[in-house]
Amino acid sequence: QVQLVESGGASVQAGGSLRLSCASSGFTFSGRCMAWFRQAAGNERERVAGILTGGGNTVYADSVKGRFTISRDNAKNTVYLQMSSLKPEDTAMYYCAAKSSWCSVAARDFTYWGQGTQVTVSS
Protein backbone atom coordinates (compact mmCIF):
# COMPACT_ATOMS: atom_id res chain seq x y z
CA GLN A 1 0.00 0.00 0.00
CA VAL A 2 1.47 3.31 -1.10
CA GLN A 3 1.56 5.98 1.56
CA LEU A 4 2.88 9.51 1.65
CA VAL A 5 2.43 11.06 5.06
CA GLU A 6 3.15 14.74 5.53
CA SER A 7 3.77 16.40 8.86
CA GLY A 8 5.11 19.65 10.25
CA GLY A 9 2.46 22.11 9.16
CA ALA A 10 1.53 24.80 11.65
CA SER A 11 0.48 28.40 12.14
CA VAL A 12 3.41 30.80 12.32
CA GLN A 13 4.06 34.51 12.11
CA ALA A 14 5.59 36.12 9.05
CA GLY A 15 9.34 35.75 9.05
CA GLY A 16 9.19 32.43 10.85
CA SER A 17 10.35 28.99 9.79
CA LEU A 18 8.86 25.53 9.47
CA ARG A 19 10.14 22.14 8.42
CA LEU A 20 7.77 19.82 6.62
CA SER A 21 8.41 16.09 6.38
CA CYS A 22 7.02 13.49 4.01
CA ALA A 23 7.49 9.85 4.95
CA SER A 24 6.85 7.47 2.09
CA SER A 25 6.28 3.73 1.89
CA GLY A 26 4.89 1.10 -0.44
CA PHE A 27 6.90 2.05 -3.51
CA THR A 28 10.50 2.23 -4.63
CA PHE A 29 11.95 5.51 -3.41
CA SER A 30 14.96 5.50 -5.71
CA GLY A 31 14.73 6.81 -9.24
CA ARG A 32 11.92 9.17 -8.39
CA CYS A 33 11.10 12.80 -8.35
CA MET A 34 9.71 13.75 -4.97
CA ALA A 35 8.02 17.13 -4.88
CA TRP A 36 6.16 19.52 -2.66
CA PHE A 37 3.07 21.21 -4.03
CA ARG A 38 0.85 23.76 -2.39
CA GLN A 39 -2.69 24.86 -2.92
CA ALA A 40 -4.23 27.97 -1.46
CA ALA A 41 -7.97 28.54 -1.38
CA GLY A 42 -9.22 29.35 -4.86
CA ASN A 43 -5.87 28.66 -6.49
CA GLU A 44 -4.52 25.84 -8.56
CA ARG A 45 -2.06 23.41 -7.08
CA GLU A 46 1.47 24.61 -7.79
CA ARG A 47 4.78 22.88 -7.50
CA VAL A 48 6.95 24.51 -4.86
CA ALA A 49 10.05 22.32 -5.08
CA GLY A 50 11.21 18.99 -6.41
CA ILE A 51 14.15 16.70 -5.87
CA LEU A 52 15.49 13.66 -7.66
CA THR A 53 16.00 10.89 -5.14
CA GLY A 54 18.94 9.61 -7.15
CA GLY A 55 21.23 12.51 -7.90
CA GLY A 56 19.68 15.00 -5.51
CA ASN A 57 19.07 17.61 -8.19
CA THR A 58 16.56 20.19 -7.05
CA VAL A 59 14.12 22.62 -8.64
CA TYR A 60 12.22 25.49 -7.05
CA ALA A 61 9.42 27.84 -7.89
CA ASP A 62 10.68 31.40 -8.30
CA SER A 63 8.46 32.52 -5.44
CA VAL A 64 10.35 30.38 -2.91
CA LYS A 65 13.92 30.41 -4.22
CA GLY A 66 16.34 31.39 -1.49
CA ARG A 67 13.76 30.78 1.24
CA PHE A 68 12.81 27.10 0.88
CA THR A 69 15.11 24.09 0.71
CA ILE A 70 14.07 20.60 -0.30
CA SER A 71 16.11 17.61 0.80
CA ARG A 72 15.77 13.87 1.08
CA ASP A 73 16.96 11.01 3.24
CA ASN A 74 17.02 7.92 1.07
CA ALA A 75 17.64 5.65 4.03
CA LYS A 76 14.37 6.82 5.59
CA ASN A 77 12.41 7.26 2.33
CA THR A 78 11.64 10.76 3.54
CA VAL A 79 11.62 14.17 1.91
CA TYR A 80 11.80 17.46 3.76
CA LEU A 81 10.94 21.05 2.99
CA GLN A 82 12.71 23.62 5.12
CA MET A 83 10.82 26.88 4.87
CA SER A 84 12.29 30.14 6.12
CA SER A 85 11.32 33.82 5.94
CA LEU A 86 7.73 32.74 5.60
CA LYS A 87 5.23 35.19 4.14
CA PRO A 88 1.45 35.35 4.40
CA GLU A 89 1.27 34.37 0.73
CA ASP A 90 2.89 31.05 1.63
CA THR A 91 -0.32 30.11 3.41
CA ALA A 92 -1.66 26.93 1.78
CA MET A 93 -2.16 23.23 2.11
CA TYR A 94 1.16 21.60 1.30
CA TYR A 95 1.22 18.23 -0.41
CA CYS A 96 3.97 15.72 -0.99
CA ALA A 97 3.93 13.92 -4.33
CA ALA A 98 5.97 11.32 -6.19
CA LYS A 99 6.49 10.29 -9.78
CA SER A 100 9.01 8.27 -11.67
CA SER A 101 11.99 9.80 -13.40
CA TRP A 102 12.19 13.56 -13.88
CA CYS A 103 10.52 16.39 -11.99
CA SER A 104 7.55 17.64 -13.97
CA VAL A 105 5.96 20.92 -12.94
CA ALA A 106 2.45 19.65 -13.59
CA ALA A 107 0.49 18.10 -10.75
CA ARG A 108 -1.30 15.76 -13.16
CA ASP A 109 2.01 14.03 -13.91
CA PHE A 110 2.49 12.85 -10.34
CA THR A 111 1.37 9.37 -9.43
CA TYR A 112 1.27 9.35 -5.65
CA TRP A 113 0.01 12.00 -3.27
CA GLY A 114 -0.18 12.60 0.43
CA GLN A 115 -3.16 14.05 2.29
CA GLY A 116 -1.50 17.39 2.91
CA THR A 117 -0.43 19.49 5.85
CA GLN A 118 -1.67 23.02 6.49
CA VAL A 119 0.70 25.96 6.71
CA THR A 120 -0.73 29.28 7.84
CA VAL A 121 1.41 32.41 7.99
CA SER A 122 0.01 35.46 9.72
CA SER A 123 1.25 39.01 9.28
How is this structure best described in words?
- The chain is globular, with a radius of gyration of 13 Å.
- Strands 2, 4, 5, 6, 9, 10 and 11 form a 7-stranded mixed β-sheet that branches.
- The protein is built from no helices and 11 strands.
- The chain has strands at 3-7, 11-13, 18-25, 32-39, 46-52, 58-60, 68-73, 78-83, 92-100, 112-113, 117-122.
- It is 0% helix and 51% strand.
- Strand 4 (32-39) and strand 5 (46-52) form a beta hairpin.
- With 123 residues, it is an all-beta fold.
Give a concise summary.
This protein has 123 residues and is mostly beta strands. It has strands at residues 3-7, 11-13, 18-25, 32-39, 46-52, 58-60, 68-73, 78-83, 92-100, 112-113, 117-122.
Strand content: over 45%
Described by its quaternary structure, the protein is: single chain
The structure class reads mainly beta
What ranges have pLDDT less than 50 throughout 5 or more consecutive residues? none
**Between the first and last Cα atoms, what is the distance in angstroms?**
40 Å
SSE layout and pairing:
Layout: E1 3-7, E2 11-13, E3 18-25, E4 32-39, E5 46-52, E6 58-60, E7 68-73, E8 78-83, E9 92-100, E10 112-113, E11 117-122
Parallel strand pairs: 2-11
Antiparallel strand pairs: 1-3, 3-8, 4-5, 4-9, 5-6, 7-8, 9-10, 9-11
What key phrases describe this protein's structure?
123 residues, mainly beta, 11 strands
